[in-house]
């Protein structure tokens, strides 16, 4: 629910020269105080580094912001002068001073100056915002780009260890938060500071006494901000917690709707929901109420200042120690004064949450990368004429440091051999794939292909020798042609069709209304699971690898397509070293080598006959497939 | 948006009081400049210090009252808005719980989740803002105009002239900028899509050495988004400066024309100063309103989505006379000429399917994907209703039974093992809340789950992380089987529930089940021939139609489709 911290729209009067009427604190709804950045300074410094290329433009932005603010600050004083002139003319008339007239010439002069000031102020404000748009968006562009490029260098371990949602939220949502801050809060911060300083200076020049009086209200504002924040905090936390709980419950109940229905548990689901809902209501309204009080209280503090200025100013005017226009200007300054204070309070929160977001992005950037590849040229010598001889020599491996999965594994796969990997689900069959393709690094020992340690090959070189057809087919939102062509860059249509034909996919593709130009939708649900398999096989054909890794489909494919897939696969396997994660007995039995895996380890290896004779796990597994005497005549 | 406001009904007095408080508070705030003008006109001009102090004290009082009113309004507004949110959430959730799977298919689970959570929060937030600000803005505006006119009607023309210009400026910029913000959203979606595809296919991307290609794809989406975002923000950059300029020019105009009127004796200086404040208040409230209006479309999109949920009626309801006919005889499950079609589908998913599943027998259903196996079994607990024909249990059409009664006699094990947050014991007891510890143990035993449960540190009390993420697929399936077993139902439905089990466990489990389900009707959907070979009756489905019915041996002789399936999975000797 990062949505919760939705930033408020740019507050009115965020710009300079805002003459705030009494009674508006702006919709400065307090942003929820979020987590604290772990390393405030470091992260800030690092984030600022991204702005470096724009330092020239940023200087202009700051300059524009400063000028626009300064012009804005000057104007109330001038406006006050106009009032004074009018007032003097009025008093003169009232007191019957002879020759006292309204000096409209002077007023006109002031007004012309004012219009100039306002125009410049607005112009600079526009320039500042306009430039900042470019800077902010280009900065986050670079950030996103860098994060994405980093992904390409991260080991697979990183992705297996977390959900896609988490990675995406860092690259998209968190970067978005940063962009919002750069766009709005950065310049706001500058204008706030300048306004604060400028206003204090202007006020001091008008009347130090009144300034001091106004300052008295300052600590009051701080007390209000602090108190309100402290009091609403636990409720915000409670609300956040309840929202989390509620989302969890809703998600669970909806995804498990079928079960809830099947077991008739709707009532219990509702009951639990209502309990959470009640909790959410209780902390929700309190959080909202208390933070909502902030505005009227700040307004009240502002009004106290206003009244004090009116009264003291009035008294001073009657004593003649101050001009009436100055009082008017002072009132306007007083109003501008309280605004940056609230804004700064808000900005502190925004910066905090921005840095948290930045930290999360930087975390990705700081993840340890895959070891760098060896230089390509040293490998190219061995790469030529790869035959597909794969050896595991004393290989040890574990996903976690202290939990070895594979120990001292030795296998020798001669070119063209078919290796079947069998075992119960979750036995770690994908582990072998991970090691072969060097998605994960082995602990000890070495894996060689045609005598070369795979660590001495550049990854791209190594992987181009492999073809992979997995059960969870991966197709992307593009045409069928593009999806097949994914196997190799720069192929022509003829080659694509040939690959499709070899994979027995050509026929079904042609039955589609748009043939090879058919666009697969986001979930690729416009073709069947089996058809997807065929496409991935076509992709592998096109890639023309030396070594194959295949995943035999078990389920969710209709029988006809399954036959096609089988045919396509055996076509693909011809003449290539193949590792097959096998489910079909015929495949297993025909394999040159069977690796029996259980709980992540290869516990037996050999061919079908050897393993049966051994009477071990494999024999057990094999025999158990036929339950009590249905068709139990076994091969010996 | 408006249609949802009925959920605000119980809070209508609160809402009315909020408005009253906001109105009073606006008046209090508008009164302050008037008092200030009195200070100038009476106090300063006549040099009456005591008067200044007196009015000053009064002003303080007025602002204190204003603050109190505002606090009250805030209290009521947050209670009303939160209460609204609570009631709305509650009825949406209750409503969705009544949905059949058909509505879930139609609206999609993910979307229903967002609608229940984010969308409602969105609407609630806007309502809260609206109650406080949207009421305030017009009141400030109207109040300000009234005060201004009462001070000096002629000078008010300046304000009245400024309002439409400001409104026009807001409108022009807004109508130019907002489309860009909309496109920006689609560009963000695109970026998300590219990234998600990359993440899900990362093995493939790397295996084919296409990292560079993916990088380019992302970069393009990224550039696209950036260009639009820059454009959008650049347009919006004009908004604030123009509004500020308008306001400032208005105040200059007021000083100029006010000065002229003072010189002719039509107006006092204090009035001019008050007038300036009124003008600012009016223009400010306009800006505020414009801000609010930009929030409303977002909320109304959410409101529309919620409304859609609430107006979607579940198609499966208990028949009125269902309760009355509680006298139900147990007996076989009969499919009688059942035809079923998913809503909007061209071809029926099942056509004219007839068979009988008898107590004490195992009925297996086999067929390729899309042949309608899962659809068939989901008609038994009435997840969907048939188009024609009927599904009967004993003598009763399933549609004539209350859904609760119907489902209480069925032990359903879904294709995808779904578990809930809680302990293992909780999850098993989901099937039967009153089950004793022994019964839980027994069910786990039968489901071949007791070994791995015992191996866990906390045994039965092991807490499953969200949906059982800390278990393997096979383990989850076994727990979901135990959950069905503990109901001791009359009818067992296993919807391809053994797929994640290895051959050995599969066989053991089926053997154990046999003892457990002696009296019951067992219906098994499977892909593997091994799983169904022993069944008393095998139904072979192809494209929604029954292609064969009988035992393994009968079908081997009569049914080509079955033979084809068997051939693809077993070798000659195994078939024999």
Key features of this structure:
heterodimer; A: 636 residues; alpha/beta; ABC transporter transmembrane region fold; Rossmann fold; disordered N terminus; B: 576 residues; 4-stranded antiparallel beta sheet; 63% helix; elongated
CATH topology of the domain at 36-365 in chain A: ABC transporter transmembrane region fold
Q: N-to-C SSE series of chain A?
A: HHHHHHHHHHEEEHEEHEHHHHEHEHEEHH
Q: Give the distance, in angstroms, between the N- and C-terminal Cα atoms of chain B.
A: 68 Å
Distance between the terminal alpha carbons of chain A, to the nearest Å?
61 Å
Computed Rg of chain A? 37 Å
- Name of the level-1 CATH class of the domain at 36-365 in chain A: Mainly Alpha
Total number of helical segments of chain A?
20
Q: Mind summarizing the main beta sheet of chain B?
A: 6 strands, mixed
**What is the subunit arrangement here?**
heterodimer
**Shape by Cα distribution of chain B:** elongated
Round the mean pLDDT of chain A to the nearest integer and report it: 78
Let me know the CATH homologous superfamily of the domain at 36-365 in chain A: ABC transporter type 1, transmembrane domain
Share in β-strands of chain B: 5-15%
Helix-strand category of chain A:
alpha/beta
**Helical proportion of chain A, percent range:** 55-70%
Average the pLDDT over all residues of chain B and give the rounded result.
Answer: 83
Give the percentage of residues in beta strands of chain A: 5-15%
In short:
In chain A, 62% of the residues lie in helices and 9% in strands. Chain A is an alpha/beta fold and 636 residues long. In chain A, a hairpin with a 2-residue loop joins strand 4 (444-449) and strand 5 (452-453).
Any overview of this molecule?
- The complex is a heterodimer of chains A (636) and B (576).
- Chain A is elongated.
- In chain A, a hairpin with a 2-residue loop joins strand 9 (593-598) and strand 10 (601-606).
- Among the domains of chain A are: 36-365, ABC transporter transmembrane region fold, CATH 1.20.1560; 473-544, 3-Layer(aba) Sandwich (Rossmann fold).
- Mean pLDDT of chain A is 78; it is low at 1-33, 378-384 and 626-636.
- Helix content of chain A is 62%, strand content 9%.
- In chain A, the strands form two sheets. Chain A has a six-stranded mixed beta sheet with strand order 6-7-8-3-9-10, sandwiched between helices. In chain A, strands 2-1-4-5 form a four-stranded antiparallel beta sheet, with no helix packed on it.
- Chain A has 20 helices and ten strands.
- The model of chain B has no long low-confidence stretch (mean pLDDT 83).
- In chain B, the strands form three sheets. Chain B has a six-stranded mixed beta sheet with strand order 6-9-10-3-11-12. A four-stranded antiparallel beta sheet of chain B has the order 2-1-4-5, with no helix packed on it. A two-stranded antiparallel sheet of chain B has the order 7-8.
- Chain B contains 20 helices and twelve strands.
- Chain B has 576 residues and is an alpha/beta fold.
- The two termini of chain B are 68 Å apart.
- Classes of the chains: A alpha/beta (636), B alpha/beta (576).
- At the A-B interface, helix 2, helix 3, helix 5, helix 6 and helix 7 of A face helix 1, helix 2, helix 4, helix 5 and helix 6 of B.
């Amino acid at each position: 629910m990062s949505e919760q911290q939705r930033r408020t729209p740019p507050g009115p009067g965020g710009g300079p020269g805002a003459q705030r009427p009494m009674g508006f604190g702006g919709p400065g709804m307090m942003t929820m105080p979020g987590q604290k950045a772990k390393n405030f300074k470091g992260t800030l410094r690092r984030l600022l580094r991204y702005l470096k290329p724009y330092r020239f433009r940023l200087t202009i932005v700051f300059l524009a912001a400063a000028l626009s603010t300064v012009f804005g600050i000057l104007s109330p004083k001038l406006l006050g002068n106009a009032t004074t002139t009018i007032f003097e003319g009025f008093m003169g008339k009232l007191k019957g001073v002879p020759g006292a007239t309204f000096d409209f010439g002077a007023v006109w002069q002031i007004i012309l100056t004012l219009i100039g000031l306002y125009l410049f102020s607005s112009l600079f404000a526009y320039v500042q915002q306009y430039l900042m748009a470019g800077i902010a968006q280009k900065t986050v562009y670079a950030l996103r780009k860098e994060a994405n490029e980093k992904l390409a260098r991260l080991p697979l371990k990183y992705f297996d260890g977390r959900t896609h949602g988490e990675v995406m939220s860092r690259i998209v949502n968190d970067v978005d938060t940063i962009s919002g801050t750069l766009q709005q809060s950065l310049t706001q911060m500058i204008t706030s500071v300048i306004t604060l300083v400028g206003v204090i200076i202007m006020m001091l020049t008008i009347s130090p006494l009144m300034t001091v009086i106004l300052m008295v209200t300052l600590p009051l504002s701080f007390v209000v901000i602090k108190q309100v924040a402290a009091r609403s905090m636990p409720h915000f936390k409670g609300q956040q917690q309840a929202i989390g709980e509620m989302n969890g419950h809703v998600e669970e109940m909806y995804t498990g709707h079928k079960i809830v229905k099947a077991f008739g548990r709707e009532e219990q689901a509702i009951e639990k929901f209502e309990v959470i809902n009640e909790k959410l209501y209780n902390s929700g309204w309190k959080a909202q109420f208390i933070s909502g009080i902030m505005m009227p209280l700040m307004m009240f503090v502002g009004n106290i200042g206003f009244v004090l200025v009116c009264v003291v100013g009035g008294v001073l005017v009657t004593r003649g120690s101050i001009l009436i226009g100055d009082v008017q200007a002072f009132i306007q300054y007083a109003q501008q004064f309280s605004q940056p204070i609230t804004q700064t309070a808000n900005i502190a929160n925004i910066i905090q949450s921005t840095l948290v977001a930045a930290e999360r992005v930087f975390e990705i950037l700081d993840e340890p990368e895959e070891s760098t590849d060896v230089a390509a040229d040293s490998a190219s010598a061995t790469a030529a004429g790869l035959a597909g001889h794969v050896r595991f020599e004393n290989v040890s491996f574990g996903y976690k440091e202290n939990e070895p999965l594979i120990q001292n594994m030795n296998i020798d796969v001669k070119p063209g051999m078919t290796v079947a990997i069998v075992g119960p689900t979750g036995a770690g069959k994908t582990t072998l794939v991970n090691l072969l393709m060097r998605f994960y690094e082995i602990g000890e020992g070495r894996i060689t292909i045609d005598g070369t340690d795979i660590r001495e090959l550049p990854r791209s070189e190594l992987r181009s020798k492999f073809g992979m057809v997995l059960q969870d087919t991966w197709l992307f939102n593009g045409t069928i042609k593009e999806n097949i062509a994914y196997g190799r860059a720069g192929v022509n249509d003829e080659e694509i069709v040939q690959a499709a034909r070899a994979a027995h996919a050509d026929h079904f593709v042609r039955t589609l209304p748009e043939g090879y130009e058919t666009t697969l939708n986001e979930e690729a649900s416009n073709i069947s699971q089996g058809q997807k398999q065929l496409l991935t096989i076509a992709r592998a054909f096109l890639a023309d690898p030396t070594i194959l890794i295949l995943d035999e489909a078990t389920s969710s494919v209709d029988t006809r397509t399954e036959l096609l897939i089988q045919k396509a696969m055996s076509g693909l396997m011809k003449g290539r070293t193949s590792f097959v994660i096998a489910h079909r007995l015929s495949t297993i039995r025909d394999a040159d080598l069977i690796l029996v895996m259980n709980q992540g380890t290869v516990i037996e290896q050999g061919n079908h006959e050897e393993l049966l004779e051994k009477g071990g796990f494999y024999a057990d597994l094999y025999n158990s497939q036929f339950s009590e005497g249905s068709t139990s005549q076994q091969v010996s | 948006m408006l249609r949802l406001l009925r959920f605000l009904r119980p809070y209508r007095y609160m809402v009315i009081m909020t408005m009253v408080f906001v109105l009073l508070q606006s008046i209090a705030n508008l009164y302050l400049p008037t008092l200030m003008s009195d200070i100038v006109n009476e106090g300063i001009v006549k040099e009456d210090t005591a008067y200044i102090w007196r009015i000053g004290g009064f002003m303080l009082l007025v602002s204190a009252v204003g603050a109190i009113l505002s606090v009250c309004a805030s209290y009521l507004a947050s209670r009303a808005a939160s209460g609204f949110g609570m009631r709305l959430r509650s009825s949406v959730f209750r409503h969705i719980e009544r949905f059949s799977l058909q509505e879930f298919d139609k609206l999609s689970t993910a979307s229903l989740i967002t609608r229940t959570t984010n969308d409602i929060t969105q609407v609630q937030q806007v309502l809260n803002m609206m109650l406080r600000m949207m009421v305030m803005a017009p009141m400030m505006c109207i109040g300000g105009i009234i005060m201004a006119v009462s001070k000096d009607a002629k000078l008010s023309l300046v304000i009245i002239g400024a309002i439409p210009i400001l409104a026009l400026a807001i409108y022009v910029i807004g109508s130019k900028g907002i489309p860009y913000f909309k496109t920006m959203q689609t560009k963000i979606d695109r970026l998300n899509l590219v990234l998600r595809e990359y993440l899900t296919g990362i093995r493939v991307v790397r295996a084919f050495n296409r990292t560079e290609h993916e990088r380019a794809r992302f970069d393009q989406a990224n550039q696209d988004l950036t260009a639009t975002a820059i454009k959008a923000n650049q347009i919006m950059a004009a908004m604030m400066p123009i509004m500020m300029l308008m306001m400032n020019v208005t105040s200059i105009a007021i000083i100029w024309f006010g000065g002229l009127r003072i010189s002719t004796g039509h107006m006092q200086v204090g009035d001019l100063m008050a007038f300036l404040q009124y003008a600012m208040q009016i223009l400010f409230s306009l800006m505020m309103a414009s801000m609010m209006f930009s929030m409303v479309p977002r909320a109304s999109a959410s409101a529309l989505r919620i409304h859609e949920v609430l107006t979607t009626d579940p198609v499966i309801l208990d028949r009125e006379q269902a309760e009355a006919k509680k006298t139900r005889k147990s007996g076989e499950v009969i499919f009688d000429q059942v035809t079923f079609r998913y809503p909007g589908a061209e071809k029926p998913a099942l056509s004219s399917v007839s068979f009988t599943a008898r107590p004490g027998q195992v009925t297996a259903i086999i067929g390729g994907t899309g042949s309608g196996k899962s659809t068939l079994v989901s008609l038994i607990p009435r997840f969907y209703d048939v188009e024609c024909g009927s599904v009967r249990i004993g003598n009763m059409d399933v549609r004539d039974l209350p859904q609760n009664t119907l489902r209480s006699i069925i032990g359903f094990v879904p294709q995808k093992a779904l578990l809930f947050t809680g302990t293992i014991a909780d999850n098993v007891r989901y099937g039967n809340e009153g089950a004793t510890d022994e019964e839980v143990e027994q069910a786990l035993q039968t489901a071949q789950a007791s070994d791995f449960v015992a191996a866990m540190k906390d045994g039965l009390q092991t807490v499953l992380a969200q949906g059982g993420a800390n278990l393997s697929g096979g383990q989850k399936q076994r727990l979901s089987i135990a959950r069905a077993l503990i109901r001791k139902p009359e009818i067992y439905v296993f919807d391809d529930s053994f797929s994640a089990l290895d051959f050995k466990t599969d066989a053991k489990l089926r053997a154990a089940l046999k003892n457990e389900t002696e009296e019951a009707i067992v219906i098994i959907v499977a892909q593997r021939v091994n799983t169904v070979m022993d069944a008393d009756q095998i139904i072979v489905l192809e494209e929604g139609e029954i292609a064969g019915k009988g035992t393994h041996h009968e079908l081997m002789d009569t049914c080509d489709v079955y033979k084809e399936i068997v051939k693809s999975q077993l070798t000659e000797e195994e078939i024999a």
